[in-house]
Write a structure and sequence with these properties.
single chain; about 90 residues; mainly alpha; globular
């Protein structure tokens, strides 16, 4: 039963982290001089960080799979989403 609570706590932390990252990124994009250029840079940096963690994270004991969810998260929210997913992977496993 404690493992169910542990997973529920991890899911709760995940959603709270996502909400915080979404607010931070929304504020960042709204303040930008050129939102489309800023968004494209965020998407590219998010994709690059996800690929880096996926392929080279094993050296530090970190693994984020490349799937539709993680790809969309990194493209929409950028590097902060990859950081949150990495922290959650370390906390849950």
């Amino acid at each position: 039963m404690s493992s169910i609570n542990h997973v529920s706590a991890g899911v709760l932390i995940f959603y709270i982290g996502l909400m915080l990252v979404f607010v931070i990124m929304a504020v960042h994009y709204l303040k930008a001089d050129n939102p489309s250029k800023t968004g494209l840079k965020g998407m590219l940096s998010g994709a690059a960080s996800l690929i880096a963690v996926h392929f080279w994270g094993g050296y530090i004991g970190l693994y984020i799979p490349l799937n539709l969810f993680t790809t969309i998260m990194s493209l929409v929210l950028g590097v902060p989403a990859v950081i949150v997913m990495s922290l959650l992977e370390k906390l849950i496993s």
